[in-house]
From TrEMBL:
Belongs to the major facilitator superfamily. Sugar transporter (TC 2.A.1.1) family. GO terms for molecular function: transmembrane transporter activity. Keywords: Cell membrane, Membrane, Transmembrane, Transmembrane helix, Transport. GO terms for cellular component: plasma membrane. PROSITE patterns: MFS, SUGAR_TRANSPORT_1, SUGAR_TRANSPORT_2. This is Putative metabolite transport protein CsbC. It is a multi-pass membrane protein. It holds the Pfam family Sugar_tr. The lineage of its organism: Bacteria, Bacillati, Bacillota, Bacilli, Bacillales. Residues 10-430 form the Major facilitator superfamily (MFS) profile domain. InterPro entries: MFS_dom, MFS_sugar_transport-like, MFS_trans_sf, Myo-inositol_Transporter, Sugar/inositol_transpt, Sugar_transporter_CS, XylE-like.
Length: 462
């Protein structure tokens, strides 16, 4: 097998967990239309079927990071692929609402685990110059999985075959299980374990020969300076600002309202005069737009940089949601205003999926030292899943209490806050190796701390 073919297979299978996350998140919207035919659901149990995936994801995120730091990225991916298969088949075979909810929790464990682990694996496998591009592959796989779910829903809707919709997730999960044969262990994890020769062999598959010695030396130097355990690192004062930045990125990625916009899109399409089947096609159109903008992000991220993309994204999503809110509050959603809302909905998705959607997955693992990268990324992904869960539970309550116009207005204020967070808090990591980023951030926050201590001492001596 050619080196280039093997390299692309490593990247493809490394990111395949993202596709499973997207599919399992997107497919339930179509399946819910017909589950009630076999398993009676009320408003509460329907909400539980949807949200229990996110609850499972919270625990999966927390566990996978620590486990991957201890046993390696590859072994944890193997376990996650088995959980994906079991969860998907259990959902398809469910005969009671309790069994269905438990199956969704099991599936959530794999979803959370993959969202925490895939960005870490891709960032550690990638050469420095294309790390951003490769990191966005995770988000491309997520939105491709969502689009695939929409297509499967559309195909099986005439047959009301919800069991096939949810059960087909086992196919890409089985592909991931087979693909593990092509996935080597992360070279940074191998160096951490003193297996330098194996790390070099892995890097020969993915890196240019002239870059291997330099990057390997940086990894060894970084590991030689680290004496603390993972838990000790996470407790260290100098890493707290990085954790807070990671938490902020995770919260803003979900709190700017992307899932609520997509949730409300079919209503807007229907008001625009489209029939039910046309509304489903409109939702598929959103899925296609997601994929296109994700590819755009892959092209831009290593050229423009993470920070600038986030700032431009914040401007775009703020203006589009503020415009949506103004239209809905002043004129309401009617046939005459619906197409205008469709336009701003499209603008919002374009800006989000080219910026905040993929960039956060790239930045989160870049922020943390290798000894704690899995655990720290797992923790921030846990926060992301928890925020997603809270927004999905609070959104219907807000919608019934104040209407969609005010809801979009509140989200536009959160979007505006994300601009200031990106502009003043988020560091730029473009063009730096993971070890260089770690050294830079450690110096930056250590200097800030020393500067603060000096100011306090000066005040005391006056």
């Amino acid at each position: 097998m050619k080196k280039s073919t093997k390299k692309y297979l490593i990247y493809f299978f490394g990111a395949l967990g993202g596709l499973l996350y997207g599919y399992d998140t997107g497919v339930i919207s179509g399946a819910l239309l017909f589950i009630n035919n076999d398993i009676p659901l009320n408003t509460l149990t329907e909400g539980l079927v949807v949200s229990m995936l996110l609850l499972g994801a919270i625990f999966g995120s927390a566990l996978s990071g620590t486990c991957s730091d201890r046993w390696g990225r590859r072994k944890v991916v193997f376990v996650l692929s088995l959980i994906f298969i079991i969860g998907a088949l259990a959902c398809a075979a469910s005969q009671t609402v309790t069994m269905l909810i438990i199956s969704r929790v099991i599936l959530g464990l794999a979803v959370g685990g993959s969202t925490a682990l895939v960005p870490v694996y891709l960032s550690e496998m990638a050469p420095t110059k294309i790390r951003g591009t490769l990191g966005t592959l995770n988000n491309l796989m997520i939105v491709t999985g969502i689009l695939l779910a929409y297509i499967v829903n559309y195909i099986f809707t005439p047959f009301e075959a919800w069991r096939w919709m949810v059960g087909l997730a086992a196919v890409p999960a089985a592909l991931l299980l087979i693909g593990i044969a092509f996935m080597p262990e992360s070279p940074r994890w191998l160096v951490k374990r003193g297996r330098e020769h194996e790390a070099r062999q892995v890097m020969e598959m993915t890196h240019d020969k002239k870059d291997i010695a330099v990057e390997l030396a940086e990894m060894k130097q970084g590991e030689a300076e680290k004496k603390e355990s993972t838990l000790g690192l996470l407790k260290a004062k100098w890493i707290r600002p990085m954790l807070l930045i990671g938490i902020g990125l995770a919260i803003f990625q979900q709190a700017v309202g992307i899932n609520t916009v997509i949730y409300y899109a079919p209503t807007i399409f229907t008001k625009a005069g489209l029939g039910t089947s046309a509304s489903v096609l409109g939702t598929m159109g959103i899925g296609v737009l997601n994929v296109i903008m994700c590819i755009t992000a892959m092209i831009l991220i290593d050229r423009i940089g993470r920070k600038k993309l986030l700032m431009w994204g914040s401007v775009g999503i703020t203006l589009s949601l503020a415009s949506l809110s103004a239209i809905l509050l002043l004129a309401g959603l009617s046939a005459s205003t619906a197409w205008l809302t469709v336009l701003f909905l499209g603008i919002y998705i374009v800006f989000y999926q080219a910026t905040w959607g993929p960039v956060v997955w790239v930045l989160m693992p870049e922020l943390f030292p290798s000894n704690a990268r899995g655990a720290a990324t797992g923790f921030t992904t846990l926060i992301l899943s928890a925020t997603n869960l809270i927004v999905s539970l609070v959104f219907p309550l807000m919608l019934s209490a104040m209407g969609i116009g005010w809801v979009f207005g509140i989200f536009s204020v959160i979007c505006l806050s994300s601009f200031f967070f990106a502009a003043y808090i988020v560091p730029e990591t473009k063009g730096r190796s993971l070890e260089e980023i770690e050294t830079h951030l450690k110096k930056r926050f250590s200097l800030k701390k020393r500067s603060k201590q000096n100011q306090i001492l000066k005040q005391r001596t006056l």
